[in-house]
Amino acid sequence: MKSEVNEQALLKGLAENDTKAIKIIYKDNFNTILSFIINNNGSYDDARDIFQEAIITLYEKAQSESFALTCKINTYIYSICRRLWLKRLHQVDKFNKPINGFEDTIQVEEDMEIHEKRNMDFAMMERAMNSLGEPCRSLIESFYIKKISMQTLAKQFGYTNADNAKTQKYKCLIRLKKLFFAQYNIGE
Length: 188
Description:
The chain is mainly alpha-helical.
């Protein structure tokens, strides 16, 4: 959880042109990119150029309020750099041997569409949860997110037993599904 908070702070700092955040991102990621590019027919200057383009891409994305990073910053930067480098190699016709580490990376363009769709679904679910009302919202969050047992929930919410709490949770899930799919069908 702490690393997620740190990653979000770095993204926010990048979006706000915070020199400290930019230096941390550079320090944490440049050597990996340098190693990748040098191992694949590139030079130090090539690595600097490609890394700078990736940082600019991340900077532009970070400034968008709708952007939600769904992987680590280093994964995102590496994927962008790898794509940019492959594109450049094709342009200068140096692509004559297999690229080291190519199979071990994510394909950003295709995955970004999937992640953006998933983020939209999560946002719709959050809106549905917020409009669900109490005690349903607390009951669902306690069971599915906090992983509290039905016996404990029955006591917390004043149900006579765990079976009654389970029945109420089921009714709440049905209401949540209706709220979610009402938004989902409007969004299509």
